[in-house]
Amino acid sequence: MSDEVYDLAVIGAGPAGMTAAIYAVRSGLRTILLDAGMGGGQLQMSPEIENFPTWKSVKGPELAAKMKEHTEEYLKVREFEAVEDISRDDGGFVINTAKQEYRARAIIMATGATHRKLGVPGEEEFAGRGVSYCATCDGFFFRGKRVAMVGGGNTAAAEAIYLKSIGCDVVLIHRRDTLRAEKRYQDKLKEVGVEILYSHVVEEIVGEQLVKGVRVRDLKSGEEKLLEVLGVFISVGEDPHTALAVKLGVELDENGFIKVDRNMRTSVRYVYAAGDVAGGVRQIVVACGEGAVAATSAYEDIVNPYWVKG
């Protein structure tokens, strides 16, 4: 157990967590920043980012590295140190990792979210053998091959474009008759020649040792057919990491994200949330802003609690 009591523990070192840590340290708060994996969160799996100010275009891992470099001007990013348990005590919070026990007066939950699964036959069986949730990570293995991208939002569109750019033959499968992706992405999909299969859902991923195809169903006609593809990339949303927050009694919203007010305060005093785990507009620049707001609220509450009168 560490004898030091931190003012603030930031759990999660994605854009929200790293920004929160920078703001906290600059405010004079003794801060610790913990992450279960590599700093950067889902930036590590983003092929190309074109809507983050200062860069016309930047690869996710590059942006993550730059953010980490900036953050470590102020404090160490403690990577691969997952928080296993968290509890209240008289002085604030006790945070247990596999390496150590820490104490902090306040917590910012920047724990992010994970990619949602389709839940169809073959998805688990072929995970890592043709099924992937990260085009940046695995796209190289499918150069020159036909692959399916499942989803209809910005991330699915961006990854389909990326796969096309590295030489894949891509078919985008979407359950609705229009994409949710921004017009810019839709225009680019058309420009690069990504085939789009509207109003279809994946019923099964098939293969032997490796993926050989996906069985899809037309939602309008009910007709089923087999698409021969060697890879299936899935981008259908996220599930927030709220287990630690729930242990502290933090209230969730109707979609399972941490419920926050405009100052990123949760239903539990001295607990804040920022980034994808708090729902809302799940974008990098928004996560950074929320991290800054959460850290500012934590500082204000530690120095001059709003609920204490006089």
What labels would you give this structure?
310 residues; alpha/beta; FAD/NAD(P)-binding domain; 2 domains; five-stranded parallel sheet
Number of helices: 7
Q: Which regions have little confidence, pLDDT < 50, spanning 5+ residues? A: none
CATH class of the largest domain: Alpha Beta
> How many individual β-strands?
17
How does the helix and strand content classify structurally? alpha/beta
Largest sheet: 7 strands, mixed
- CATH-defined architecture of the largest domain: 3-Layer(bba) Sandwich
SSE run: EHEHEEEEEEHEHEHEEEEEEHEH
Write a brief structural summary.
The protein is of the alpha/beta class and 310 residues long.
Q: What would you note in describing this structure?
A:
The mean pLDDT is 94. The chain is α/β, with parallel strands linked by helices and 310 residues long. The chain contains seven helices and 17 strands. It has two domains: 5-114 and 238-303, 3-Layer(bba) Sandwich (FAD/NAD(P)-binding domain); 117-234, 3-Layer(bba) Sandwich (FAD/NAD(P)-binding domain). Helices cover 24% and strands 27% of the residues.
